[in-house]
Every structure is written in structure tokens, then in C-alpha cells.
């Protein structure tokens, strides 16, 4: 199976599972990944998603064995696989109304790097690396890379990563704000699970609205964003979670949040 899924208490784990090719994307992996993310989207009881890779890598991007062009063959249509697989994948991932955590357990290259960076929270093992490998093979960064990189690390670093295709270490990535946190390799998965357990008990409704507000801030001006915050806060403020959060604070106990995801 090219993708493994694991149902935990309140969250799911998706593991890219082609370790012999460093979890490179091929058609079966794409199809399995779409199915797995659709299942997360349909499961109301799923309150967080953890994505990681099997073996020593997170994901090495497009499987280049599928892209070898023999002399005389027509040019492979890179654009088609974006339209058919990668772009819908990114959209599905970003549209999930629950927190998505990527546990980058090894190299994340090309589409694998940008797939990881599309998560809400990116954790990495100390030996993990990030590489916008596209320029090494004559492509441009895709899978949202040209969108997320400058927003995450600023234009200078985004241009350096994209044009030079140098390998960025996990520690560098954390220092730059490309990712949230580095953990020692042997602690990465336990830390990632602990984070998802925590997120599964968090106020899911408010977190879904928060994601919506942060996404909108990329294109909104301040007035539009203040208006959106007003509208979303009215929704959050009338939720049972908010009432519970305030009550728990005043009673000096841990809140028990029960809300569903926002529609
Ligand atoms: C691989 C791959 C791989 C196949 C390692 N494919 N086998 C979108 C739309 C349309 C068209 C095209 O592309 C895209 C998006 C993209 O993702 S383009 C970018 C594609 N990815 C790359 O260019 C990265 C290619 N891989 C590498 O540069 C290195 O393998 C990295 C830096 C990921 C890891 O290096 P090492 O740790 O030294 O491992 P390795 O190179 O020895 O790889 C181990 C094996 O995995 C090896 O197979 P082998 O049979 O020799 O043991 C590699 O051939 C295989 N592998 N990446 N993407």
C-alpha cells in the first residue's frame, strides 16, 4: 500500500509509504492520498491530521522514474499532472477545517517539500532536510511553493531556496520560520502524536475559523480582515466551547471542548 492510514483517538495519521523511492509521488500514491484525505474531510470525529513518511524520508517529490523521456518521445506533460493530481491535492489539504501537522522525518524535496510546507504546523526531525529541488531538473517550484515560500520566509530566502535549490537543514528551517519546531529524530513521532492528541482536545470550531481567517489575511486589506474577524468572532463567541473555556478558567480547571468543525 502506497499510503498507510491510522485512526487514533480524535485524529488520523497518513503515512506516505514508498520508502524504496523515498516516498516519491506516483499515480497510485496520489490516488491513495486523495482517498485518505477525502476520508478525513468526511469524518466529523477527526479533529486533527498528522502526515509523515515511512522509512528515512518524508517525500522526494515527483517520482522521476515516471518522467524519463526517451529520444523521439513526446514531451512529458508536467502541467497535466499538476491539474489532475497536485493542485487538487493542495486544495483538499488546505480546505480541511482541522489542524494539519506534518512530521518531516527525513528529506522533503520538490513537491514533497511544498506538500509538507502546506501543513498548518510543520515539525521536523533534526536530520531532516528541505530542498526546493526543481531548479536542479529544469522545473519551477510547484505545489504551492511560489505561494508559501515568500510568505513563510520572506522574499530573499524564498528566492535563494528556489533559484539555488540548496539543501536547508531542519535547524535552519526552524530559525528561518519555514517550520514550527525541530525535535531530536527519536522524539519526532512521539512529539507529533502528543501535539495531535492536544489538538484533538482543542476547540475545533474556533481552530477551523482561525485557519479561515489566516488564509484570508493573505489577500485581504486591514479593513476587510477586521470585518472578517468580527464575523468569525461572533460565531466563535456564540459556541459552547467559548462558554466552557470561560467557565473552566474561572473554576480553575481544564476546559472540555466538544464543538464540531465549522461547516
Ligand atoms: C527517487 C526519487 C524521485 C524517483 C529518490 N523519484 N526515485 C510536479 C509535476 C510534474 C512533473 C514533475 O515534477 C513535479 C514536482 C516535483 O516534485 S519535481 C522534483 C522531483 N524531485 C527531485 O528532483 C528530487 C530527486 N531526489 C533527490 O534529489 C535525492 O534523491 C534526495 C535529495 C531526495 C535524497 O538524496 P539521498 O538521500 O542521497 O538519496 P538517493 O538519491 O540515494 O535516493 C535513494 C533512492 O531513492 C534512489 O534509488 P536507488 O534505486 O538508487 O537506491 C533514488 O533514485 C530514489 N529516489 N528520489 N523523486
Describe this protein's structure.
The protein folds into two domains: 198 residues, 2-enoyl-CoA Hydratase, Chain A, domain 1 (Alpha-Beta Complex); 48 residues, Orthogonal Bundle (Lyase 2-enoyl-coa Hydratase, Chain  A, domain 2), CATH 1.10.12. Helix 8 runs antiparallel to helix 9. A hairpin with a 4-residue loop joins strand 1 and strand 2. The strands form two sheets. A six-stranded mixed beta sheet has the order 1-2-3-5-7-10, with helices on both faces. The protein contains ten helices and ten strands. The mean pLDDT is 96. The chain is of the alpha/beta class and 263 residues long. Bound molecules: ligand LHQ. The site of ligand LHQ has 25 residues, from helix 2 and strand 6. Ligand LHQ binds next to helix 2 and strand 6.
Amino acid at each position: 500500500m502506497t499510503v498507510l492510514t491510522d485512526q487514533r483517538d480524535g485524529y488520523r495519521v497518513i503515512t506516505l509509504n514508498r520508502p524504496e523511492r523515498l516516498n516519491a509521488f506516483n499515480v497510485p500514491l496520489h490516488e491513495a492520498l486523495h482517498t485518505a484525505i477525502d476520508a478525513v474531510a468526511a469524518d466529523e470525529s477527526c479533529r486533527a491530521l498528522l502526515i509523515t513518511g515511512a522509512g528515512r524520508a518524508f517525500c522526494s517529490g515527483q517520482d522521476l522514474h515516471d518522467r524519463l523521456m526517451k529520444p523521439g518521445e513526446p514531451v512529458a506533460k508536467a502541467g497535466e499532472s499538476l491539474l489532475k493530481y497536485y493542485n487538487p491535492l493542495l486544495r483538499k489539504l488546505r480546505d480541511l477545517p482541522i489542524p494539519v501537522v506534518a512530521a518531516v522525518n527525513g528529506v522533503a524535496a520538490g513537491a514533497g517539500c511544498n506538500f509538507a510546507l502546506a501543513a498548518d504546523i510543520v515539525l521536523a526531525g533534526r536530520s531532516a532536510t528541505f530542498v526546493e529541488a526543481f531548479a536542479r531538473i529544469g522545473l519551477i517550484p510547484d505545489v504551492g511553493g511560489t505561494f508559501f515560500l515568500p510568505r513563510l520566509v520572506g522574499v530573499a530566502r524564498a528566492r535563494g531556496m528556489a533559484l539555488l535549490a540548496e539543501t536547508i537543514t531542519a535547524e535552519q528551517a526552524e530559525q528561518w520560520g519555514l517550520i514550527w519546531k525541530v525535535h531530536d529524530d527519536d522524539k519526532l513521532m512521539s512529539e507529533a502524536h502528543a501535539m495531535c492528541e492536544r489538538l484533538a482536545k482543542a476547540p475545533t470550531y474556533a481552530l477551523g475559523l482561525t485557519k479561515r481567517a489566516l488564509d484570508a489575511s493573505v489577500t485581504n486589506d486591514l479593513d476587510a480582515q477586521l470585518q472578517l474577524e468580527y464575523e468569525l468572532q461572533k460565531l466563535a463567541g456564540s459556541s459552547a466551547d467559548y462558554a466552557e473555556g470561560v467557565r473552566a478558567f474561572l473554576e480553575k480547571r481544564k476546559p472540555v471542548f466538544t464543538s464540531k468543525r465549522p461547516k
